[in-house]
Amino acid sequence: MERNRSVPSILCGMPRKREPAGAAVLQESVTSAITTALFDELAETGYARTSVDAVARRAGVGKAAVYRRWPSKQAMLLDLLETAVRRNVPEVPDSGSLAGDVRGFLDVIVAQVADPRIKRIALDMAAETTRSPDLGAALRETVAGPRRAAAATVLSRGVERGELPADIDRELGLDLLISPLLGRLLLIGGPVDDAYLTRLTTVIVAGLTSA
Amino acid sequence: MERNRSVPSILCGMPRKREPAGAAVLQESVTSAITTALFDELAETGYARTSVDAVARRAGVGKAAVYRRWPSKQAMLLDLLETAVRRNVPEVPDSGSLAGDVRGFLDVIVAQVADPRIKRIALDMAAETTRSPDLGAALRETVAGPRRAAAATVLSRGVERGELPADIDRELGLDLLISPLLGRLLLIGGPVDDAYLTRLTTVIVAGLTSA
Amino acid sequence: MERNRSVPSILCGMPRKREPAGAAVLQESVTSAITTALFDELAETGYARTSVDAVARRAGVGKAAVYRRWPSKQAMLLDLLETAVRRNVPEVPDSGSLAGDVRGFLDVIVAQVADPRIKRIALDMAAETTRSPDLGAALRETVAGPRRAAAATVLSRGVERGELPADIDRELGLDLLISPLLGRLLLIGGPVDDAYLTRLTTVIVAGLTSA
Amino acid sequence: MERNRSVPSILCGMPRKREPAGAAVLQESVTSAITTALFDELAETGYARTSVDAVARRAGVGKAAVYRRWPSKQAMLLDLLETAVRRNVPEVPDSGSLAGDVRGFLDVIVAQVADPRIKRIALDMAAETTRSPDLGAALRETVAGPRRAAAATVLSRGVERGELPADIDRELGLDLLISPLLGRLLLIGGPVDDAYLTRLTTVIVAGLTSA
DNA sequence: TTCTAATCGAGACGGTACGTCCCGTCTTGCC
DNA sequence: GGCAAGACGGGACGTACCGTCTCGATTAGAA
User: Fold this and answer.
1) What Rg do the C-alpha atoms of chain D give, in angstroms?
2) Alpha carbon distance D45, D49 (integer Å)
3) B20 touches strand E (CB under 7 A)
4) N or C: which terminal CB in chain A sees fewer CB atoms within 10 Å?
5) CA of A121 to C1' of F1 (A)
6) Helix or strand or coil: residue D124?
7) Which of A45, A125, A140, A188 is the best mutation test for B, with the most CBs of B within 10 A?
């Protein structure tokens, strides 16, 4: 039942307790068949048009097997996003300079959103956030949290090195590191190539220094 | 028949040509009843859970009246967004300084996304963009276009005043003006108050100057 | 407005009185276009699937033009049946013998139901009769009445000639003349050729004589 | 799954084969709830105005449950008619005389058409027959067939007893037994009481004898 | 090993919404 | 006023999913 435990409790009606006596256990083969089918279905039809029926059919699995693992279509999607995103926890190596660290951080973000499926689900979830505050909180904790922590490290190193003032506005700094790139990647949609990242790094460093 | 003409052709099957002879005409009273009902329904139930049946019922209107105007639920929503967004074309007065113009521009964005319904629909549409490139193009033209134009004006004035280098990277400049705030408003979700905007203005100006 | 006068008042919500003063008049060309289109539509799609919209479209006529003439789809159909049926009022010439008259009467019935469209509408109307007693009465008066009158003439001549007893059961006699053939034509559906009619004439005469 | 098997294949898209493995099965309780609701609805509103929505609502059942059993409203109605009609297969006991057998046969017909719902559906189906030859064939086989067989028995017994000539025209004899009464019951609509049946028996016997 | 309980695929269940079609009425502008 | 065109409110059609529930058959832990 680790599966359901990985979904924040807000998102599940009630995570099963269980395993009392002569119990059976969710078969991993079934779980992974569903996961694969879901990813394929998402890639083909998109989130809004993905149906549980279709996923189960594609996985050669009964619908009940899906609902035994996740309490709803949304929870299933969310769990998927989280897993995919968790697989790539941002880890920004100390490059020795603020500019290097900033560029490293940007590269990590780009790498993570490179998969268009991630982009889709992320946007869908962001949209859903406006309806469900609980979901927003869950996402902020599991998805945004680790990323902001990594960004905070970049800022801290800058302060330690003396490249940034000690009283820098952390909140604004984090936004400056994350938002411009994320906004372009998810909302604006223009190309994000090496040159762009290089110039973006420059202006972010300038911005941070002035903050 | 301005109604359907206002929807980009990609979004409707085919905008009606019409008015051959003694023709009937979509009644404005019905259109506005539907629009009102749709906005109310969106506010109450959210995009995903808004049904055409419910909108028609609330408007005291037959379902056919809806489908006579828009070819699908999606097209209806989209047209709505466009209309709402078009009602508030950004107009940044010349404040005499780059910092003033930047702040003015940020204020306009905040004002437009203030209505949480706009925020919802905007995110839903952004999400849909990842599935339908045509839709993305339409949105970029009608929604993003005017905003980027306003931002471009801010940059131009800065160059004229000598506050910005003449060879400034326009693309990056526009992103810097738009993305950080939009990212926070739509994706990150923290508070955006006067103090935040003031500090954001500072770092943007710093960033632009260095670009 | 003779048109609507021909529909029994039971079938129309309220037959127009009209022609009071500076009145306009329904154009005969439109009426006949509708009639033709209706017949064609019936022949192609059948009663149940015939829609007023389709008839009007085929006639190149506005729907209102139809509803100006008949209060409902059903009334229109009924009026049509009545007209078609009235065009061919049964007229059984005195052949000089009971057997000859009976055969003549049967021939008239066969001729009238020969058109499969008449058969369809007749059955549809019979079916509708079970729901609407008023319609039943109207049909009995305008459709069945004249036919039973013609059959009654056959019986009367037989009595006059002395071929039938004077106290013959008229009701049963009429049924015997009409039902067997009508039942076969409309309900059973087997072939009705000359030989069949000859033999049927024989048994009907035998039956009548014994009544 | 006998339900769908009982519907002639012409009427259903394709009767389900089924029961491959641990399969689900249409629940009899639901089927009978639908059947009851349908009969009630027919009695109240009549065939043409009976809607699947209303039947499902009255049965406390989802619309899908109906469409899982029958492919269309029409097929459902037809299956119903067949079932109702099959429940009462005509069985004419040997009364020892032709007149007695004829009267017995007439009584059976009257009994079967006594339920006005049967009458309605029968006429509706007869009407539909003119549009769909396949339906006509199906009805002739399942509905008319057994009745004509029973009538044939009456004729055979008459021949055996020497009351009828051995070379009697069977086809015409069957028509004479069935059509007059059916015509009156379904098409003409006058009263059919004991006296009427008595006299009708007399003329039919006379007709048969002369055939 | 045997028992036993939760698993499995399959799919029926009550619902809700979809987008289409038609009914009979109403509206608009031309004649 | 009639006319063609067609929008109107209403409501049924048949389809597709949702999330739940029910079947036998299978499988795996506890006794």
Assistant:
1) 20
2) 6
3) no
4) N
5) 63
6) helix
7) A188
Q: How high is the pLDDT of residue B127? A: 75
Tokens of B111: 């004002």
- Shortest distance, CA C192 to any CA of chain D (angstroms): 11
Which residue do the tokens 């609507």 mark?
Answer: C4
* Residue D19, Ramachandran bin (φ over 0: left; ψ between -120 and 50: alpha; else beta): left
> Across the interface, which of C127, C176, C205 has its CB nearest the CB of D123?
C127
Task: State the pLDDT at residue A106.
Answer: 94
Residue A52 has pLDDT above 50, yes or no: yes
If phi > 0 it is left, if psi is from -120 to 50 it is alpha, else beta; for residue B189 that is left
Nearest Cβ partner of D211 from C119, C182, C199?
Answer: C199
Q: Which of B48, B130, B172 sits opposite A203 (nearest CB)?
A: B172
Distance B4 CA to E20 C1' (A): 20
Amino acid at residue number D59 = A
Q: How many angstroms separate the CA atoms of B121 and B140, rounded?
A: 15
Q: C52: which 2 tokens?
A: 């007023």
The C-alpha of D15 sits at a distance from chain C's nearest C-alpha, in angstroms, of 26
Q: Which nucleotide is nearest to A66 (CA to C1')?
A: F19
Output the pLDDT for position C88. Answer: 66
C72 touches strand E (CB under 7 A): yes
CA distance to A145, A175, A197, B25, C176, per residue, from A106 (Å): 16, 12, 7, 54, 98
Tokens standing for residue A130: 């406006």
| CA pair distance A86, A64, nearest whole angstrom | 27
Those residues whose C-beta lies under 8 Å from the C-beta of residue C114, and which sit 6 or more positions away, are none
CA distance B107 to D210: 105
Say whether D33 sits in a helix, a strand or coil.
Answer: helix
Question: Across chain D, which distance is largest between two alpha carbons, in Å?
Answer: 64
Residue at shortest CA–C1' distance from E18: B52
Instruction: Give me the CA A13–C1' E5 separation in Å, rounded.
Output: 24
Residue B145 pLDDT greater than 70, yes or no: yes
- The structure's pTM equals 0.73
In eight-state DSSP terms, residue A144 is: I
- How does DSSP classify residue A193? -
Tokens 């899982």 belong to which residue?
D68
The rounded distance, in Å, linking the Cα atoms of B40 and B37 is: 5
Q: What are phi and psi of A7, to 5 degrees?
A: -90, 125
**Coil, strand or helix at B165:** coil
> Between these two residues, D84 and C20, which has the higher pLDDT value?
D84
The mean predicted confidence, pLDDT, of chain D is 81
The total of other beta-carbon atoms located within 10 Å of residue C144's CB is: 18
How would residue B59 be classed by pLDDT, with cut points 50, 70 and 90?
very high
Reduced to 3 states (helix: H, G, I; strand: E, B; else coil), residue B124 is helix
Q: What percent of chain A has pLDDT over 90?
A: 32
A63-72, B16-25, C119-128, D142-151: least confidently modelled range: B16-25
- Residue type at A54 in one-letter notation: A
Q: Torsion over CA of D150, D153, D155 and D160, rounded to 10 degrees?
A: -170
Q: Percent of chain A, pLDDT > 70?
A: 83
At position A75, the amino acid (one-letter code) is A
Of the pLDDT bands very low, low, confident and very high (cuts 50, 70, 90), residue D163 is very high
Whether residues B175 and A186 touch (CB distance < 8 A) is answered with no
List the one residue out of D207, D202, D210, D171 whose CA is nearest residue D97: D202
How far is D25 from C39, CA to CA, in rounded Å?
A: 47
- What is the structure's pLDDT at B134? 67
Tens digits of residue pLDDT in D73-101: 878 877 877 777 776 666 888 999 999 99
- b/e burial code for range D81-90 (CB count within 10 A of at least 16 → b): bbebbeeeeb
CA distance A65 to A30: 8
The C 44-73 residues near strand F by Cβ under 7 Å are 60-65, 68
